[in-house]
Amino acid sequence: MTPTEVRPAHRAQALRLADALTDRLRDPDALPHAGHGTGSDERWKTASLASGHAGIALLFAQRALRVPQERHTAHRYVELAAASLRTQPAPHHGLLYEVAGLGFALHLTGHGVGYARALSALDARCGAAAAALARLVESVPLGPMARYDALDGLAGLGRYLLLRGLGPSADMEQLLKALVAMTATTGHRGREVPRYWSTTPPNWHPDADPELRASGHLNLGMGHGIAGPLAVLATAHLQGARVEGQSEAIGRLVALLERFRSEDEHGPYWPPTVSLPTYEGTASGRRRGRVAWCYGAPGISRALQLAGRALDRQDWAADAEASVAGLTRLPLEQFGMEHWSLCHGWAGVLHLLGYFTDGPSGPRIVELRERVAARIIDDFDTAGLPPLQLGHDRLGEGCHPAGFLEGAAGLALALDAYARPGEETLPWDTALLLN
């Protein structure tokens, strides 16, 4: 990341808020667990990179760069995650879950402290899981988005293998070939759709679009959609991990994003999903979705930016820049935010904007970033620090998540990155496929 060197306007307030959130998380024994489930189906929520101990470890590993004593707390959290993993008969392997998530946390936390054997075992498990998923998508043309997405699937596992220096491995090669193969089309309900088509809706909420329930959808987002595989294919290319057809696959994914990009008075944007009836139509008239990491700009924008860098396509980089520049004209009230999280909240926007401050729209993006930072700080100044709980859902009344993806640890990391441009940092946002 190449953040602006301009001193952030809200630096002092951001650091105070990050410190206060960190203080709430310093003692894992004092952190309440959401819900009361004790079965294996509940344990991932308190062990995973997304919502549990492994994700909170990232915060203390990052802070240990300046305060070495914080490394003890990071180690404590990864030990708790590892202990939980040992009790689970069927853990999730995805990057934001238990197996790859623990490996990610150990990689960032464990420099020089003897985690090599544990990491080797986790690498083998993640490689095997990636190879199994690759074989699945090769043999079954269509399925749910969890097969390939950033959280559960091939995109997240691929980024883990790259982080661990396993780009040249046979497992990574098989994974890349699968991501490439999925850009081909296959028949579905009388139409030809890319094999990235998800046969399930983006969620099972009772008010979900009936057409998405019946026929599935093409998901465009970074969290669950084609922007995630695009980011990983581009990053792999930049790191020299390449298979036949990879450049062409990058181009096909970019073409899909360009095909379904819309524009309003503020600028270009992407809807979250594309239904089967609209797949062969145009993007015109479809609503602007959430502005976030998981959906829309600036998450998709970063994937395009990486693709442009990988294949030296200045037009793709310009499209990415234009989509973020459009956000500077969009009122904050129309960002669709309901929370301050990394995944679908203000923290993710704050952090992602930092990847665009050196471009031609840099001054306007810096100003927007300051407005987002002020929005986060003002919200906490008004409401105060909420009670925090470990886990994902079934939170107590008035409580908020403590973890990385949707909680306080992720917000503290984003605030710290905003307030300390140009300072040493761990690649914690690799978990979001951002680099």
Structure keywords:
17 helices, 435 residues, two-stranded antiparallel sheet, mainly alpha, single chain, two-stranded antiparallel ribbon
Q: How does this structure look, described?
A:
- The chain is mainly α and 435 residues long.
- The chain is built from 17 helices and 8 strands.
- The chain has helices spanning 11-25, 40-47, 53-63, 70-86, 99-109, 116-139, 154-163, 170-181, 210-215, 227-238, 246-259, 276-279, 299-311, 314-327, 346-353, 362-383, 408-419; strands spanning 185-188, 191-194, 217-219, 262-264, 267-269, 273-275, 388-389, 400-401.
- The strands form 4 sheets. The chain has a two-stranded antiparallel sheet.
- β4 and β5 (267-269) form a beta hairpin.
Task: Summarize the topology.
Layout: H1 11-25, H2 40-47, H3 53-63, H4 70-86, H5 99-109, H6 116-139, H7 154-163, H8 170-181, E1 185-188, E2 191-194, H9 210-215, E3 217-219, H10 227-238, H11 246-259, E4 262-264, E5 267-269, E6 273-275, H12 276-279, H13 299-311, H14 314-327, H15 346-353, H16 362-383, E7 388-389, E8 400-401, H17 408-419
Helix pairs in contact: 1-17, 2-4, 3-4, 3-5, 3-17, 4-5, 5-6, 6-7, 6-8, 7-8, 7-10, 8-11, 10-11, 10-13, 13-14, 15-16, 15-17
Helix coverage percent of residues? 40-55%
Number of helices: 17
Q: Give the N-terminus to C-terminus distance in angstroms.
A: 8 Å
How confident is the prediction overall: mean pLDDT? 93
Overall geometric form: globular
Strand content: 5-15%
The oligomeric status of these chains comes to single chain
Strand order of the largest sheet: 1-2
Topology as a string of helices (H) and strands (E):
HHHHHHHHEEHEHHEEEHHHHHEEH
How would you characterize the largest beta sheet?
2 strands, antiparallel
**Rg over alpha carbons:** 20 Å
How many strands appear in the DSSP assignment? 8
Structural class by sheet pairing and helices:
mainly alpha
- The low-confidence runs, each spanning 5 or more residues with pLDDT under 50, are none
